[in-house]
Amino acid sequence: MADTRADAQRPHAKREIERKYEATPDTRVPDLTETPGVARVLHAGTADLDADYYDTTDLRLAAHALTLRRRTGGADEGWHLKLPVAPGVRDEIRAPLADEVPPALAALVRARTRGRPLRPAVRLRSSRDIHHLVDADGTLLAELSTDTVHAERLTGDGGTADWTEIEVELADGADTALLDAVDRHLRHAGIHPAAAPSKLARALQETGPAPTPATTAPPAPRTAGDHVLTYVHAQADALLAHDAAVRRSQPDGVHRMRVASRRLRSALRSFRSVLDRSATDPLIEELRWLGRELAADRDQEVLEERLRTALDTIPRPLLLGPVQGRLRRWSAARSADSRGRTLEVLDSPRYLSLLDALDALLADPPLRGKAAKAPEAVLAAAVLKDHARLADRVEHALSLPPGPDRDLALHSARKAAKRTRYAAELARPALGKPAKRLVRRLKGVQDCLGDHQDSVVAREALRDLAIQAHAAGEPSFAWGLLYAREEAAAAAREQELPDLWRRVSVRGLGT
After folding, report:
1. What pLDDT was estimated at residue 305?
2. Of 8, 64, 99, 464, which has the fewest Cβ atoms less than 10 A away?
3. This prediction's pTM
4. What DSSP designation does 176 have?
């Protein structure tokens, strides 16, 4: 019973897919049983909803299209945090009703709030008239609500606003095509989509100063500086977006956040002719720190998947001893340590200071003289410089005999390949097809070198597992077999590299 109560207290997520429409108290919804798949429209009663929306004093959550509310009334009263996924699509994280912001939800927005307190900013009281759209079997397809809303600003001058709107929310598992079909019927009846993406956004617009959206599209880049800053801005946004995914343990969240930090670091290093290194070098060091801290969690994910997949390929008669159980215990111990460390890092003052430093860089970029020049020559020169460094490292690695020294040299070449690829990605809008081709072929080199390095790491882990198995009196045959396979895989990658490298061409860059 204790576990059941604990589960009830944990936040849980729901994917919310909905559309909102303008309405008046006199608006009449058309007969939606004419919509394909909708057999009946059932009145599901009314609900009085009372919600306080929390934010920082400078409305940082609203600026990033995040909403955090405490709502009473309705079937889902409690705390709700809504994270944007795509237009009309949000992940709603729910927590039980409490007086204070639940710590788990506060953590999910910490990268936005940076330690600033969360206080009620807007109160919305709504009277909701609910109808269910169901199929012939009575299965819920969507919920249509007509909401009469009263908004009150709880800060500043405390303005108010009133409006009516219609909301259509897709039921879990229903086909999104239903929303398109309903949309056509509503539009045909003269009911048009709402101008504001959410009730909170409309309330802020109509009750006082609204925050400037943090994700407004920048103008088309013209100068070298424009291109670099556009790329850096996009990766800084990605870093913030993936923060919540990492905290929620979403698949690939750590990987995507780590890639964003790498791209940022590479851009600041590769384009020092555009951004003053006296300002960017300290930031580069902090991004390197973040990448190292994220590495343990991500590397453990990759390693565990590689070893599990490899074990699945061994014929059952050769799986001597409790190999699956040993791998599970070994992985669980390492994953628990790395997961805890990652969350400590994301909650640390150092990480929040890094985010502040990124904001400061973008608010007042330390541009050098070449930033004002046309992008082609400036960006191409940076890419060519990175390519030359990569060429030196690849050729050095290939000159060494197989063994630990070569493994280290190939790992160094892998890092240089990533940096060159990211530089070419940044330059691609300005340099066109030559940069696109370079990115594609560098990706092949990077993947080859990455698989080689994964094999090096896997062999270290397999040796550790074999030693543990032997010490426990278990057969170590399976671990030795996988070790030999990894040796062969690494040798194959080394044989592929020269041909992949010959295909990498910088022809046409900067001409």
Report:
1. 86
2. 99
3. 0.87
4. T
